[in-house]
Design goal:
binds 5'-O-[(S)-butoxy(hydroxy)phosphoryl]adenosine, eight-stranded mixed beta sheet, GMP Synthetase, Chain A, domain 3, seven-stranded mixed beta sheet
């Protein structure tokens, strides 16, 4: 029996045969009309006058419409039978727990909205949120959206430099943080990291500090305690009606250039995309306990921990910590404890659990699960099968969801809420309804089946980024230039489509590195190396890693007067961890005399990568000087001998 038959024999029941194809084909007849029908499912103060204003490459969805995101996530439920339903089960890294109903969350958000207003925050102001995964993170986000402020969340694993770059680019007025957070039993010194850089953040007027521990910390003149500013605030704050294209948030992500890019998402289009994809992909229902293991500091958390589940009135589990702390069973123990029905996680976490063996998940009751999801990086077929058999016990469908920070929501996935289709391990399956994708080659030609090319998006979609913060030019160059004459959005990913039109995502085609599904740019890492006094030049690439997906490999040219040593090696690792954060820890650092460059001075990372992964280097004619490659080849010959 074919593997696919074996998998799909378990799924004889589909909702309506052909339903997915029918819906998708119908959506493509008139994409705008299709999404307008979906948008009607949100709560609007005023309906739009025009569905889409498309001034390539700038799109505005639902022009003239007025709405508020927090109203769609909270007020709607407070006025319904969901009022006292649990919104969040929260579990801290340290096994602390909290429960918040929709009504309680609503009250806290309202109070905090008033607190922000009391500090002078108003519509369009930027608020940076730097917190670990605690309910306050959601409360602060929703409070921003309630008053029309633009949130800018910074992953709590990032350190001072990364924080400063983002705060300064966004010109935030406020930072919301905590005295500390917890990860893997260790303290995350959020406030201390803010303090380290506060003098370099001229736009910041106040730092709001949530108190998590009884230890005292230093409070500066701009610092205010969360509990103090919410005191005496009313538990109702009138929501700000915003235009559909009003920016809901800026989220920084890494690209191919040195500086992180501030991806800007609007309100009406973004929320419509999330509302619909959540229904189609996860098929949320009243009884669900949804557990998305992402961190809210990344887009997955913004979209599928905060906005999508709350709009649907789902009960969800929010977890502060890591999959392997205190023991490598935490997700499974949480699934059992809370009766999780949908688990949405990453291939990296699954690969880690696989390494620990099947006994661990088998010792928990995972029978509450009905659907399994993955996101962030390609999932290897073996890992898919492991997930399917050992976690889903062959009874749960799998949704491998492909999308990006820029797309706002899911773009390619199995839509189990429309129809359960035959699954193929490792394929994200089909573009969702209302999304038109293509695969093109370097010559700008559309490819037919079974050919590898660049994945492009052919039509504007509601969740699409509006621009890069204060940088329309970079937005245009980054995403729309490569396939300009086709007017296609360039995703940066390789893909192929098989005989049955299933999509297979094949990883990045650019210099973006994915560590445990998190995005880091080579140039960003290189400039951080160069910011160390000993480093003259750096080239950073990645190589496949069995657990993390990819790992960081750096080639360093030292400045005069500095010499290779174990100590310097350690110091450079520390430098990266301190400036960017622990996810940027390099796995290998090699000291070399020269880097392979083109005559125009561009580092040829492609050649480095070929040597590191052991494939022929191919065309080297544009190389300025071959000795650099010989040196690196020698290093790798030595490594491979060991
Ligand atoms: C990049 C986007 C999607 C939210 C989290 C990551 C890769 C994402 C998949 C998948 C293969 C995937 C792509 C994409 N990616 N999901 N299911 N299969 N690759 O968002 O940090 O913006 O990264 O992640 O390479 O371009 P992000």
């Amino acid at each position: 029996m074919l593997e696919n038959d074996y998998i799909n024999n378990n799924f004889k029941i589909t909702l309506e045969k052909g339903a997915f194809k029918k819906k998708r084909n119908h959506s493509l007849i008139n994409i705008e009309e299709f999404w307008a029908e979906e948008a009607k499912k949100l709560v609007w103060y005023k309906q739009w006058d025009k569905i889409l204003e498309w001034n390539p490459p700038f799109a505005k969805w639902f022009v003239g419409g007025l709405l508020n995101a927090s109203v769609n996530c909270l007020d709607k439920h407070v006025e319904s039978e969901n009022k006292n339903k649990v919104a969040l089960f929260w579990e801290g890294d340290n096994e602390e727990t909290r429960i918040l109903t929709y009504y309680q969350l609503y009250q806290k958000v309202n109070q905090f909205s008033n607190a922000l207003k009391s500090l002078g925050v108003s519509k369009g102001d930027r608020v940076t949120i730097y917190l670990t995964m605690t309910p306050e993170l959601l409360i602060a986000m929703l409070a921003c959206s309630r008053i029309g402020a633009i949130h800018n969340i910074i992953f709590s694993g990032f350190s001072s430099q990364a924080l400063a770059d983002r705060v300064n680019d966004a010109q935030s007025k406020i930072i919301v943080t905590a005295d500390r957070g917890f990860r893997r039993g260790k303290i995350v010194e959020l406030k201390k990291i803010v303090d380290q850089t506060i003098d370099d953040l001229p736009s910041i007027q106040n730092v709001i500090v949530f108190k998590r521990s009884s230890n005292s910390i230093k409070m500066g003149k701009q610092d205010v305690w969360w509990h103090d500013i919410i005191k005496n605030q009313k538990s109702y704050c009138k929501p700000q009606q915003v235009e559909s294209s009003h920016p809901l948030f800026i989220l920084y992500t890494s690209g191919t250039t040195g500086k992180p890019k501030g991806v800007v998402h609007g309100t009406g289009g973004y929320l419509t995309h999330l509302y619909s994809t959540a229904k189609w992909v996860f098929d949320f229902n009243k009884q669900d306990i949804f557990f998305c293991t992402a961190d809210i500091g990344w887009i997955t958390g913004h979209s599928y921990i905060v906005y999508a589940p709350l709009m649907h009135g789902v009960t969800e589990l929010i977890y502060e910590g890591t999959p392997d702390y205190p023991k490598p069973d935490r997700y499974w123990s949480l699934v059992e404890k809370y009766g999780v029905t949908i688990l949405y996680t990453t291939p990296t976490a699954l690969r880690m659990y696989m390494r620990y063996g099947n006994e661990i998940p088998h010792s928990f009751d995972l029978s509450s699960l009905r659907l399994l999801g993955t996101v962030g990086e390609p999932i290897n077929p073996e890992v898919w099968m492991w997930y399917f058999t050992n976690i889903g016990k062959e009874k749960c469908a799998i949704v491998d969801t492909w999308w990006q920070t820029e797309t706002g929501g899911i773009m390619v996935s199995h839509c189990t809420g429309i129809e359960i289709l035959s699954m193929k391990p490792g394929s994200a399956m089909f573009p969702i309804p209302g999304i038109d994708l293509g695969i093109v080659n370097e010559e700008n030609k559309y490819l037919s089946k079974n050919q590898k090319g660049y994945l492009v998006i052919k039509k504007p979609w509601p969740g699409m980024l509006q621009t890069l913060w204060k940088n329309n030019k970079k937005y245009r160059n980054n995403y729309w230039k490569k396939f300009e004459n086709k007017l296609c959005y360039f995703t940066g990913d390789y893909a192929t489509m098989d005989n049955e039109s299933y999509f297979w995502l094949l990883g990045r085609s650019d210099d973006v590195i994915k560590i445990s599904g998190h995005r880091l740019g080579s140039t960003e890492l290189e400039s951080t190396f160069v910011s160390h006094k000993s480093v003259a030049e750096a080239a950073v690439i990645s190589k496949p890693n069995n657990t993390k997906g990819e790992s960081i490999i750096a080639f360093i040219v030292l400045r005069k007067g500095y010499f290779e040593s174990e100590k310097l090696h350690r110091e450079l690792i520390k430098h990266l961890r301190k400036k960017i954060g622990p996810i940027a820890t390099p796995d290998e650092i090699h000291f070399v005399n020269k880097l392979p460059k083109t005559r125009s001075g561009k580092i040829m990372r492609r050649l480095l990568k070929s040597i590191v992964i052991g494939v022929p280097t191919g065309d080297t004619t544009t190389l300025e000087d071959g000795t650099s490659l010989e040196e690196i080849q020698k290093i790798y010959n030595e490594i491979n001998k060991k």
